[in-house]
Design brief:
Elements (H helix, E strand, L loop, with lengths): L1 E9 L22 E3 L1 H9 L3 H10 E3 L10 E3 L17 H6 L6 H5 L2 E6 L2 E6 L4 H8 L7 E9 L5 E3 L5 H18 L6 H15 L9 H14 L3 H11 L6 H10 L13 H14 L5 H20 L1 H13 L1 H4 L5 H26 L4 H15 L3 H13 L5 H8 L2
Parallel strand pairs: 1-6, 5-8
Antiparallel strand pairs: 1-7, 2-4, 3-4, 5-6
Length: about 400
């Protein structure tokens, strides 16, 4: 049953359409696919011969299910592909049972739909190549819009935000608005903007969110945002960049290598990311003085492209903040959210420098391939991110002054 909601979404959202002809990587392979209980029961009870044959081994109950939305799991085959996908890359559910029989997950992806209080927030995940191109290849900043729209919760995968307190929601929304404004600050290096986000959050964490005078707390958040100036951090960044102890390549290379030890096995890596990774490893293999080579490669092969197209990475970071804000912006653990943003940016940049060195330059197609495949491989791996946070603690890379080492050029 459809219900009308106030919807907050990036303006690119309504332009997106699934485009199999231009899709660079199928959404039906190489990751964990969950389905809702209604769909699970429908497939189990189906009398269609093809569907019955698939569900025998292709469908199981989810032992870690939290609600009816993630009740079942589609077990990928030996090729790490959804078993409902036939040899012609067509969905047997769609063919034999009709579009309405697709799971909520399949109907929704790459859209993210989150109910926050009486508002629904919608965006697109960058793990879809078509969505990434629509959202990122636009030299204008991502804009958000509020509209009224009808949404059928029974037909789509809609996540309910665990945050129910309307005052807390408003505080998080104000923090997010400021973060996005800082990330979209013109005529400033993106790394400097990310550092300014850290400066903003450092000040925010001094506020007592439990203060019963809500309007007073909200005003303090707004005041801190108004006072932020990227210029305040330029001297700190410059001094850090000139440090002889800079170990950016070492730390990012270590964080990347941890993905092979923690979280999903390599069989769940995006095919596109494996291709990118092989080129990155080849670019750095056998090189002496890696920290210097890494910096020279950035200046020679990647920076000229980013100087003209910096909006792509800006849009990626802004989209990450918006789409995952209910996961990221926990008032009790804001700094961990910031650590994740810094590492995401650092690892994307690390991979891009390697790719640029390998190809002797960068282009839109290559950058989009990296962002899409990186998003699919890294963003949702909770086990991996826990290991990342532990490493940052062990290496003393949790304070703003030290995080500069991970992200500045």
């Amino acid at each position: 049953m459809e219900k009308v909601f106030k919807v907050l979404q990036p303006k690119y959202y309504t332009r997106f359409q699934c485009d199999p002809d231009n899709c660079q990587e199928s959404c039906c392979e190489r990751w964990r696919i969950i389905i809702d209980k209604s769909t699970y029961d429908k497939y189990i009870q189906s009398q269609n011969g093809i569907i019955k044959g698939i569900v025998k081994e292709g469908l199981t109950m989810n032992p870690t299910s939290l609600d009816a939305n993630d009740y079942g799991i589609i077990n990928l085959n030996k090729e790490m592909i959804c078993p409902f996908l036939n040899t012609n890359n067509l969905c047997e559910v769609y063919i034999n049972m009709g579009e309405n029989s697709l799971s909520k997950t399949c109907k929704t992806y790459p859209r993210t739909i989150v109910q926050v209080g009486d508002v629904v927030e919608r965006g697109l995940e960058m793990s879809c190549s078509v969505a990434a191109k629509e959202a990122l290849i636009n030299n204008k900043p991502i804009e958000l819009e509020s509209i009224m729209d009808s949404i059928d919760f029974n037909n789509l995968y809609v996540v309910s935000s665990p945050i129910k307190d309307l005052k807390q929601i408003e505080m998080i929304n104000e923090i997010r608005r400021t973060i996005i404004n800082l990330l979209q600050m013109p005529k400033t290096e993106l790394s400097e903007r990310i550092i300014s986000v850290g400066g903003f959050l450092e000040e925010i964490l001094k506020i007592d969110f439990s203060n019963p005078h809500f309007e007073e707390v909200l005003l303090m958040i707004k005041d801190v945002g108004k006072q932020m100036d990227v210029g305040d951090f330029k001297t700190i960044i410059k001094n850090k960049q000139q440090s002889k102890n800079l170990r950016q390549f070492h730390h990012l290379n270590t964080l990347l290598a941890m993905k092979f030890r923690e979280g999903d096995s390599i069989s769940f890596f995006s095919k596109g990311y494996i291709e990118c990774l092989m080129e990155v490893l080849d670019a750095f293999s056998g090189k002496k003085e890696l920290e210097k080579y890494y910096k020279r490669s950035y200046e020679k092969y990647l920076r000229p492209y980013l100087d003209k197209n910096s909006y792509i990475l800006e849009n990626f970071m802004v989209n990450t903040v918006f789409v995952y804000s209910r996961e990221l912006l926990n008032l009790k653990d804001l700094w961990t959210s910031y650590l994740k943003l810094c590492v995401i940016y650092g690892l994307v940049k690390f991979n891009l420098i390697g790719l640029a060195a390998y190809h002797k330059g960068m282009n839109d197609e290559l950058l989009l391939k990296l962002i899409q495949s990186f998003s699919k491989t890294f963003i949702q791996d909770k086990v991996y991110w826990q290991s990342v946070f532990e490493y940052l603690q062990e290496e003393g890379l949790v304070k703003l002054n030290s995080l500069i080492e991970l992200i500045t050029e």
